[in-house]
Amino acid sequence: MKQSEASRAAQRRTPGSRRQAVRGTAQQPAGAVPGVDGGVNAEASPLVAVYRKVLPKRVRKAIAGRYSPEMRRSIKRVLSTASAGRPLSQVRGTALTTRHRSLITASGGVVLAVDGRPRVGFVEDRLSPESARRANLGAVTAALEGADIDYFCVRSRLDGATTVAVSAADRERTLAALQKLCRTLPGYFGPQSGEAGRVTPAYPGAGWRRHARAESLRLFWYRTERGRRLVLGPEHGCDIEFWAPEDGRLVAPRRNDVTESVAADAPCVQVPAATFTAPSGTRDVSPLMVRTREEFTTVLPHDVAFPVDVVYTWVDGADSAWQRRRARYSGTAYHEEAANAARYANHDELRYSLRSLAMYAPWVRNIYLVTDDQTPAWLDTRQPGITVVSHREIFTDPSVLPTFNSHAIESQLHHIAGLSEHFLYFNDDVFLGAEMWPKDFFLANGLTKCFPSPALVPLGPPSAEDVPVSVAGKNNRALIQERFGTTPVRKMRHVPHALNRHVLAEIEEEFAEQHRRTAAQRFRSDEDISIPSSLYHYYAFHTRRALPSDLPYVYIDVSKPNAANRLDRLLLHRDKSVFCLNDTLSTEDDFEQRNGLLRPFLETYFPVPSRYELHG
């Protein structure tokens, strides 16, 4: 994307240079909205939206019971093709593409169709919410510096956008400088966080008159990636606030996270832009520096200031050497699901789960990939921040290796050398669907959050009819009952599990025999306990080191007939913070079908490669 001259000049002047809405909301270009199989999204029709809104759930459920998911999907697709298949030339207000052609060309912009209207946007190679915030903040602050207007960045109460404060005495000069910016870099006015409103162009002069007396306004620029499958907009904009001069102080027009006023003549300090665009930290640093006041650089009691790492467990089930090892040690499984080859099928989920981290959790410090001496062919292990860890490096008793039991592997994760005290445990079929923050998983005092599921662990002792997850859940429950006198009945959601190394070590000591037996089982067994995904959370809760929480989440079993419809819906709305795409029922013969469903969905949802991927 081309920068304005003011933006480039501001970065040249900046000292101490270093390398680079509703929360998490992503805009989808209008028109033929893509679906999971590369065709039109079956959920994209306005008629489908009206159907869901008007008909009661019980009526829709009755209809669904009479017609197959495939038939319902075909009907929705016909409706979506008819209503959403217009080319850009037929979108409302297309005069923009001719009237402002020279402006678009000069700014390096492209024309996008967003919500049925043409919008000017800019292509970024490493698009993310953070990069969009940084670009928007950089454009605004460069324009103010170019006009010699004093400003300071403010720590907002809301995540997702940035805030710049100027004195109300400089209102006219500020509006003039920003209007001049938008004449060369076409931007938009957007609704501010928590407010209703619509997007309007900021490059025509008429739009500015409506903001002549506003206490604050939001400017933003649409950002997209090269494939134009993802568009970020007003939710990552930059708010400009006008602080009123009163008795030698500047008074905020609305509440922020720190103070109601600052001294009018206090000096500003220069800080990296990431202080406001990535307040929880990021590896993707930028040379951009901005001004703020000392008050907005302090650490607050609710800030999660400790480092957070991520641990994945991963297996390449298609690896012939791994298959031979598994065949050598495998016997008759106690339950057919334990030996189901679909558990080890590789749809490249790890690649896209890492992309979700890069886009929506840039604050993660290090990523550890725990494997049976396997490394994905596409993974760039030379990149800082990612380490492949062998089972041999973490098992206390290496004689139990090799192991093909995820419960056994999970029992050893806290032995990883260099792992932070607080970390998140991911399965590779778990993805962040929207921007998240450390506080979504941890309290600043170190307590972890857990996310109970409405699904229940059956009562009674383990039986031959139980699936492995229920067996482990019952074994967990027996330990909690004996130790604390309560009866856990709820499973935990398939989300990133927030964990504490010290508590995991304590569990290993507290339940030493059960822990040792689980670690020694090469395949899932009826003696297993599931530690990081369940037992940890109940133990930490009872010892006052964890608390229940919730987040927008969906679990989709991709072996079910309605999976394609649910994936289309998720792709269209992008309204879940976390989602899990699981498959425990498919056979090896179903691999190609599932792969044809998952890969297009994941590539469309996460189109931006992470830095951990080898090029070419």
Write a structural description.
There is one protein chain. The protein is α/β, with parallel strands linked by helices. The protein is 33% helix and 18% strand. The chain is built from 20 helices and 26 strands. The strands form seven sheets. Strands 3, 4, 5, 6, 7, 10, 11 and 12 form an eight-stranded mixed β-sheet that branches. Strands 17-16-15-18-23 form a five-stranded mixed β-sheet. A four-stranded mixed β-sheet has the order 1-2-8-9, with no helix packed on it. A hairpin with a 2-residue loop joins strand 1 and strand 2 (117-123). Helix 19 (563-573) packs parallel to helix 20. The chain is globular. 43% of the residues are buried.
- Number of helical segments? 20
- State Rg: 26 Å
The major β-sheet equals: 8 strands, mixed
| Structure classification | alpha/beta
What overall geometry do the principal axes of the alpha carbons give? globular
Query: Portion of residues in helices?
Result: 25-40%
Distance between the termini: 23 Å
> Which regions are unreliable across 5 or more consecutive residues at pLDDT < 50?
1-25, 88-93, 332-339
Average pLDDT over all residues: 86
DSSP E strands, number: 26
Strand content: 15-25%
Describe the SSE topology.
Elements: H1 5-13, H2 46-54, H3 57-66, H4 69-84, H5 95-99, H6 101-107, E1 110-114, E2 117-123, H7 129-146, E3 152-154, E4 162-167, H8 171-184, E5 188-189, E6 200-201, H9 206-209, E7 216-220, E8 222-224, E9 231-232, E10 238-246, E11 249-251, E12 261-263, E13 269-272, H10 274-277, E14 289-292, E15 308-313, H11 320-329, H12 349-360, E16 367-371, E17 386-390, H13 391-394, H14 406-410, E18 422-427, E19 430-432, E20 448-450, E21 452-456, H15 468-484, E22 490-492, E23 497-500, H16 501-510, H17 512-520, H18 531-542, E24 546-548, E25 553-557, H19 563-573, E26 578-582, H20 591-605
